[in-house]
Task: structure prediction
Amino acid sequence: MYLGIEGIPGVGKTTACKALSERLGWRVLFEPVKAVEEAGLLKDFYEAPAKHAFVFQTYMLHARFRLQQLACYEEAPVILDRTLAGDWLFAEAHALAGNITKHEWWVYQQAYEVMTAIRPPFLLLFLDVAPEVAYARVRARARPSEANMTLGYLTGLRDRYESLLSRIQIGNHRWRGTSVMRYPWLDGMDKDENWMHDLVTLIKRRMA
Result:
């Protein structure tokens, strides 16, 4: 059994995962970013997405699949920092932008269909924040890899997330039985025990 955490860049997903882990006592399986950073792929991807988007997204898809497999076989509940469903949205954005070709997108979709047959999360928790707020946070943390990220990109991702969450809720997605929760994630919420207590309570209720 595992909890999937989703959100657009700048929402504070890593902070939320750590805060929930401390209060639930569940292990976090974090996004596999370190490997692509060390390989230089993340930097190349952000500098030239039209050249590297397919390689980057294909690697991330397979890496997330390995983590989701691990989550399925854990005896105790775990927290998964972004799921395969979330990965699809980022890849789709690049396909629509022309950074991934028609044939590359077809290959990605074939792999995705096979991988998402694995057991889904019991709950998909979407940490919600206005794109303008997320953009301000991205600017403030000033990561070199995010220097070219735009407000329009974040707005488009949030719209795609809304579509994904709605499809899961109405059963128009292969992850049938997965519960969906939208939760506002404000600055400092990870240190507010009342907010965190309410969120943990809501999560535990969805486990039944």
Summary: The chain has one domain: 2-206. The chain has a mean pLDDT of 93.
